[in-house]
Specification:
Number of helices: 19
Oligomer: single chain
Strand order of the largest sheet: 1-2
Strand content: under 5%
Pfam families: DUF1759
Structural class: mainly alpha
InterPro entries: DUF1759
Shape: elongated
Order of helices and strands: HHHHHHHHHHHHHHHHHHEEH
Number of strands: 2
Distance between the termini: 95 Å
Length: 477
């Protein structure tokens, strides 16, 4: 258990470096053009960052070996590798773009850039999968930059292969943009141009990334994953907005306010205490570093608690384990399927079925494979324990009963009796004061009783005599 805690702390340190590198790239991308010194710094940091994966892989392998259920650790590895590969591709694209601008100014810089590229090509890195794009504007910039860096700008790949990779990367609505093009080398440039024309809409892209910042889900309970999600969402969308030319370097106060409002109560209180200890207004980097450190702390506590819980579970006997598993299983809801209209309800509540004549119901129900007594599936009428027909007390459903003349008469009596019984209940009805104009044009105030369920309209004799000169000719019976 002690070894696992130590490994978790070391892994948290490695992940903190990943977050710091992401913040550094975000700051670098906000610059219109990197200077020579800044470019060298990006290259140097990238060299160090590329070696980070080996350290993480060693720690993660040990944790996966120690874990009783490694599925959670596998998910942790997948999340780290996704961020790692994205940051490597972003850094390389940033360096490549800067070197391309500097290439026209000095031939010596061209040689330096070529030498640097050769150095990186000699480094053995993990396999980078093709990026996927389904047509979401929120993912377009990341896909465009990654695909450009890996495939589009690679002169060693033929155009026919580039088109193959492009089609393999597109799915859903995005794949429809290039589906009508023939598979040939000449059509790659046209396919890439069509895709860029479709999704390189700056106004929509800016709107989507700003909306993503405002739509971050609030955290109800503190957790390391929720805090890292806020960090990643903030960095990702700010990088995209910076690429789109938005002045994100001046948005620190606004972004801090938005993201702080998404924090849980405990983390928000910790942030307020930390902010009060500062002499100057906090920058976005200070806020991100605070969330990163807080996330590392929570992750360590969560992993320690998880390991302790698993350790206590091993001390229980097999009987208690089986009981626990039995109590955690919950029956899954199975939606009903009406055999008449295929909707989610029983056939005896189906309006379509009830609207049919009784003779037709009797014919149709025999093909539904349901009990003729309760109209539910799963058993026969002779095994049904529910009530019988309300009219004849035989073992069939009331909806399937065929009435004769005597039964109809009895039914009418029952209905009249029921109406009489129901009339004895106390019912509150709304009233209103209205103006009634008599035959001479004079207005009289009268109170009306509003009953939406009534089948007749009544008026008092006093009101008739007040408003009508001759009731016998006024259309009043």
């Amino acid at each position: 258990m002690t070894d696992a805690k130590s490994l978790i702390k070391k892994r948290a340190s490695v992940k903190a470096k990943l977050t710091q590198f992401a913040s550094f790239l975000n700051l670098s991308q906000s610059c219109k053009q990197l200077s020579d010194t800044q470019t060298v710094e990006v290259e140097y940091r990238l060299n160090i960052f590329e070696n980070l994966y080996e350290k993480y892989d060693a720690l993660q392998c040990d944790l996966e070996t120690l874990a009783d259920d490694p599925s959670e650790q596998y998910a942790e590895r997948e999340e780290f590798e996704k961020q790692y590969y994205s940051l490597v591709a972003t850094a390389r694209q940033l360096i490549s773009a800067t070197r391309s601008k500097q290439a026209g100014e000095s031939s010596s810089e061209v040689g330096s850039c070529a030498s640097h590229t050769h150095t990186h090509n000699s480094i053995r890195l993990p396999k980078i999968d093709l990026p996927k794009f389904s047509g979401s504007y929120h993912d377009w910039l990341e896909f465009r930059d990654t695909f450009t860096s890996i495939i589009h700008s690679n002169n060693n790949i033929s155009k026919i292969n580039k088109l193959h990779y492009l089609r393999a990367s597109l799915k859903d609505s995005a794949s429809l943009v290039v589906d009508n093009l023939d598979f040939s080398a000449e059509n790659y440039d046209a396919a890439w141009r069509l895709l860029c024309d479709r999704y390189d809409n700056k106004r929509l892209l800016v709107n989507n990334h700003v909306q993503a910042l405002f739509n971050v889900n609030p955290i109800s309970k503190e957790s390391s994953k929720s805090l890292r999600l806020i960090i990643d969402t903030t960095n990702k969308n700010l990088r995209a907005l910076s690429t789109l030319g938005q002045p994100v370097q001046h948005w620190d106060t606004l972004i801090i306010y938005i993201m702080a409002s998404k924090l849980d109560q405990v983390t928000n209180r910790e942030w307020e205490e930390h902010r009060n200890s500062l002499t100057e207004p906090p920058t976005l980097n200070i806020f991100i570093n605070f969330l990163s450190n807080r996330s590392d702390l929570l992750e360590t506590l969560e992993e320690s608690k998880s390991i302790k819980t698993r350790g206590e579970g091993h001390s229980d006997n097999n009987k208690s384990n089986k009981s626990f598993l039995a109590t955690t299983d919950k029956p899954k809801y199975k939606p009903l399927l009406c055999p008449m209209c295929k909707q989610d309800h029983h056939v005896f509540t189906c309006e379509t079925f009830k609207s049919l004549p009784v003779e037709v119901r009797n014919k149709r129900v025999h093909g539904f494979n349901v009990c003729l007594n309760c109209l539910r599936p799963g058993h026969d009428a002779n095994k049904c324990k529910l009530g019988h027909c309300k009219y004849c007390n035989k073992k069939h459903n009331t909806l399937l009963h065929v009435h004769n003349d005597s039964e109809l008469s009895n039914t009418q009596n029952v209905v009249l009796s029921a109406n009489h019984s129901a009339s004895s209940r106390i019912i509150l009805l709304s009233t209103a004061l209205v103006q009634v104009t008599d035959t001479k044009g004079n207005c009289h105030t009268a109170r009306v009783l509003l009953d939406n369920g009534s089948t007749a309209n009544f008026v008092s004799s006093d009101l008739v005599l007040t408003t009508v000169e001759d009731p016998s000719t006024g259309g009043v019976c």
